[in-house]
Amino acid sequence: MSKTYYIETFGCQMNEYDSEKICGLLNTEGYVEISQRDQADLIIFNTCLIRENAENKLYGKLGEVKKVKRLNPNTIIAVCGCIPQNQEIREKILTKYPFIDLVFGTNTYDQLPELLYDITQSQKKIIAIEENSDDLIEAIPKVRKFHHKGFVNIMYGCNNFCAYCVVPYTRGRERSRNRQDIIDEVTELANSGYKEITLLGQNVNSYGNDLQGSYFFPDLLRELNEISGLERIRYMTSHPKDVNDDFIAAIKDCNKVCNHIHLPVQSGSSKVLKEMNRKYTKEDYLAFVEKAKREIPNLSFSTDFIVGFPGETEEDFEETLALVRQVRFDAAFTFIYSVRPGTSAGKREDQIPDTIKHERFDRLLKTLYPIFESNNKACIGHDYTVLVDDVSKNKPDYLTGRTECHRLVHFKGDASLIGQVVKVHITKARTWYMEGNLI
Ligand code: 5AD
Ligand code: SF4
What we know:
- This protein is of the alpha/beta class and about 450 residues long.
- About 35% of the residues lie in helices and about 20% in strands.
- It has 3 domains: about 5-130, Methylthiotransferase, N-terminal domain (Rossmann fold, 3-Layer(aba) Sandwich), CATH 3.40.50; about 150-375, pyruvate-formate lyase- activating enzyme, CATH 3.80.30.20; about 385-439, CATH 2.40.50.140.
- It has helices at about 15-30, 50-70, 85-95, 110-120, 165-170, 180-190, 215-225, 245-255, 270-275, 280-295, 315-325, 355-375; strands at about 5-10, 30-35, 40-45, 75-80, 100-105, 125-130, 150-155, 155, 175, 195-200, 230-235, 260, 300-305, 330-335, 385-390, 400-405, 410, 420-430, 435-439.
- Strands 2-1-3-4-5-6 form a 6-stranded parallel β-sheet, with helices on both faces. The protein has a 5-stranded mixed β-barrel with strand order 15-16-17-19-18.
- Strand 1 (about 5-10), helix 1 (about 15-30) and strand 2 (about 30-35) form a beta-alpha-beta unit.
- Helix 7 (about 215-225) runs parallel beside helix 8 and helix 11 (about 315-325) packs parallel to helix 12.
- The longest helix has 24 residues, at about 355-375.
- The site of iron/sulfur cluster has 10 residues, from helix 5.
């Protein structure tokens, strides 16, 4: 009988994509994925360290599986991803949850088949972590979640050391993938019917900076745009310090590159941005947004905010609200600042009290939501091409998909349309989605 596994993924798209590769490796080894966690022979938690609540989620799950391990000591419990990359936290969890059998990191998941073999042979706990790797993990089979859209890594790691962020410590330095490997992977996806790809990297606009030569992110967009069969190219995440005119020109010239930029601003105060080590000012950000909107028709912008960064004053926060009103973002991820191990901001003594952080967070949402809704309302009466992703979770006769500008659309339709690009006439709009009729 085949061995079974259960995998649960926390955090960003990078982790989701790593999980697709982990599943690919396990399937080649003859493992079968199941959704009943407690019956699996192997339970894997692919973890995230970006904020404290992501870390706490893992502890909750480990508390739950303790009983599973007691009832069935042969179950292998594995923890991988970003959390074990931090030595202190890794040691803490190994002491607190001694039943964990296997720990591997963001640079070692390709060794999983051998690690599992070693565990079954030796019956001993195995810890496989490489703190900082120069290697690129290539040619890993993937179990892709969708058959019409998929992720493609273009680079790994981050060099930016934003003062609040743990990623440079968990994912190491920037390493760009070889251009031809990316082109080949996207061509293969397009040939097997994929319509949309999302290029992944912590900072996609610095693609190529570490390679010999003068081939950069806009060049990659232009080359991928030529791949036949492919209809949409997305990418994330862009860093405001690395966006430029070439990038705007590439989006404008390439019909497959979507008219949506996710450009995390974090704060609207140049003082806070400097302390965050973001390397751009509020004015730089606004100038780019204005230029891009002028050049690219119907461009939508989404962003990330952190409220309550150490030392953030009421005036700094009001500058964030003013920036929100000026840019009129189409969507945003909003976060309350969370102290992270090893980061410079975590050591600051001028941390903002929780009550103030929450109060600012609420005010930020109150400012953002009416803008999202009003931007969506402006789409009413217009027709949009929508790539159909799935059946709607709440209404089974409804489908859900996204416009090119990344707006979520719900509409009545048959499940046979999943994976197709259709036209929808928008009739209703809310804060986070729109509704319409298939035309
Ligand atoms: N606290 C809160 N939010 C954070 N982010 C990164 N680190 C932290 C932190 N310590 C947010 C940033 C980033 C997004 C992926 O997560 O907004 O853009
Ligand atoms: Fe973290 Fe900054 Fe790198 Fe993004 S650019 S991963 S926020 S250090």
